[in-house]
């Protein structure tokens, strides 16, 4: 076997391989919380101690969960670190990180590194890239960040020892464009085959799929074995690897995923101008940059002013308010949803094998999506229901909107209701991310009659107390406004909402809490 020498050491002569991304974090939107942890360590040398500290933060903050790490039974930082070392001690070295927990760390860094969000090499300084910093500062959102970086991506890079030497994402867009001229979409089985493409030739690929029927996943696997030689295990080839790539493709906003009995992929017309701009730009990665991680990072980690103007122009910030209800109604009709069905979907979030029709929507985003639909099912057009997530042209969520705004806004009848929806169960994260920022946002709203809700499967007692304290603080500073707020556990919210008693419930709760505080203070007067 021929070997080649690189800055990272000796490795085998490259071969053609299937495109895949690490399955440790399947949904790319979940990489932003990982970046938030890494941001605290920028400039640190990634030695064993720092890597262990980062992993501790990632697990203790529940950014990533491990079935082998039961935080409830590990009471100290030292105990958690010791467990991290123990459960990863048999992991082989990977990405030039040593065997053990260092190798596990790399599985969380690989995709972020490959797309130029970070520079993370063993025993070198951690660097956060320009695009990642804009994402962390909410200048751009996850959809925009991944859309930009996929357009600069090169299959052959310091992180892939392959002969496939082109931008897969631009290739698949060319395929979808050509299919659309024939009023066709790409099936999931055909999409699997695209991941084995050896050259940037959309016409050649379309010729293959037009002359070969792929009615079942097994037929794809058979074709791959016959034409591409030895493959990985069938489930890996047909499910795990395609799943991670499709999730990456979806978060860019370039495609719609249509579930019409079979899963089909088409271009998202809402992103046409954005795609046109980046498809016309050529990002050349030199041979040196394909071998050197730092050179590669320096090449693709930034976004230019011109590119940012294109991003800004692509944002659909001028949609008429009434359009939001139209989009929600369309989804309800397309998927034949009613109150019972939507409550079932809410209860099944995170349950493996459930909510298959919405599989490619991340769990936290599903929660926002389903609550928005429930609100429309209950209130209809009496209010404008405005979820702040980003959608494809069918109204299906792609990613969360930038920070500094609530998840859902309900407007009408002289009322403004701001709703934060979260699946976060970690007490510290609930306190840090789901409370005071809401009060800052609602204070900027001109409407006189204001309401606010926090909805979660579990509301920690400390979160509840802090939320209540913020209610009193807000009322004190805004005495001229009518303001009511309440934290709701998921099931309680669903019940009160369906009974159409939500505004009265928030009013009564706030009135009773305010009176209780006043009665307590009177004792000290």
Number of helices: 23
Counted beta strands: 14
Shape summary: globular
What structural class should be given to the helix and strand makeup? alpha+beta
Radius of gyration: 25 Å
Beta-strand content estimate: 5-15%
Percent helix, as a range, is 40-55%
List the uncertain runs.
1-5, 317-322
Main sheet attributes: strand count, strand direction, barrel closure: 5 strands, mixed
Name the quaternary structure: single chain
The chain-level mean pLDDT equals 89
Instruction: Give the strand order of the largest sheet, numbering strands 1, 2, ... along the chain.
Output: 8-11-12-13-14
Distance between the termini: 87 Å
List keywords for this structure.
single chain, 525 residues, alpha+beta, five-stranded mixed beta sheet, 49% helix, disordered N terminus
């Amino acid at each position: 076997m021929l070997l080649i020498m690189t800055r990272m050491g000796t490795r085998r002569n490259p071969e053609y391989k299937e495109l895949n991304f690490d399955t440790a974090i399947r949904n790319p939107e979940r990489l932003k919380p990982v970046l938030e942890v890494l941001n605290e360590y920028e400039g640190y040398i990634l030695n064993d101690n720092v890597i262990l500290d980062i992993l501790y933060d990632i697990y203790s903050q529940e950014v990533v969960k491990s079935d082998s790490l039961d935080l409830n039974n590990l009471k100290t930082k030292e105990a958690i670190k010791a467990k991290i070392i123990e459960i990863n001690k048999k992991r082989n070295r990977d990405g030039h990180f040593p065997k053990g927990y260092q190798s596990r760390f790399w599985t969380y860094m690989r995709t972020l590194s490959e797309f130029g969000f970070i520079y993370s090499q063993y025993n070198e300084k951690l660097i956060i890239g320009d695009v990642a910093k804009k994402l962390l500062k909410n200048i751009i959102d996850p959809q925009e960040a991944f859309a930009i970086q996929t357009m600069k991506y090169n299959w052959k890079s310091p992180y892939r020892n392959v002969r496939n030497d082109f931008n897969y994402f631009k290739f698949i867009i060319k395929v979808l464009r050509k299919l659309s001229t024939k009023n066709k979409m790409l099936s999931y089985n055909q999409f699997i085959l695209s991941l084995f493409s050896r050259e940037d030739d959309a016409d050649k690929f379309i010729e293959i799929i037009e002359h070969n029927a792929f009615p079942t996943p097994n037929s794809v696997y058979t074709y791959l074995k016959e034409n591409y030689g030895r493959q990985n295990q069938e489930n890996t080839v047909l499910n795990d690897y395609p799943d991670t790539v499709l999730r990456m493709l979806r978060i860019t906003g370039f495609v719609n995923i249509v579930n019409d009995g079979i899963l089909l992929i088409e271009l998202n017309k809402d992103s046409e101008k954005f795609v046109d701009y980046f498809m016309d730009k050529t990002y050349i990665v030199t041979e040196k940059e394909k071998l050197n991680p730092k050179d590669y990072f320096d090449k693709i980690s930034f976004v230019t002013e011109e590119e940012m103007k294109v991003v800004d122009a692509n944002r659909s910030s001028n949609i008429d308010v009434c359009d939001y209800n139209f989009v929600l109604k369309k989804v309800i009709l397309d998927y034949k949803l009613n109150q019972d069905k939507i409550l079932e979907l809410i209860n099944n979030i995170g349950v493996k094998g459930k909510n298959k029709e919405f599989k490619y929507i991340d769990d936290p985003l599903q929660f926002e999506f389903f609550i928005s639909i429930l609100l429309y099912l209950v209130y209809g057009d009496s209010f404008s229901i405005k979820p702040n997530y980003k959608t494809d042209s069918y109204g299906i969520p792609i990613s969360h909107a930038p920070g500094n705004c609530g998840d859902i806004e309900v407007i009408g009848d002289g009322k403004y209701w701001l709703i934060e929806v979260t699946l976060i169960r970690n007490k510290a994260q609930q306190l840090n991310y789901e409370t005071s920022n809401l009060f800052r946002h609602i204070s900027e709203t001109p409407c006189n009659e204001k309401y606010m809700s926090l909805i979660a499967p579990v509301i920690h007692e400390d979160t509840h107390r802090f939320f209540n304290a913020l209610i009193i603080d807000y009322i004190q500073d805004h005495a001229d406004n009518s303001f009511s707020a309440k934290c709701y556990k998921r099931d309680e919210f669903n019940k009160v909402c369906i009974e159409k008693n939500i505004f009265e419930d928030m009013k009564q709760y706030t009135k009773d809490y305010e009176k209780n505080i006043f009665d307590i203070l009177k004792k000290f007067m």
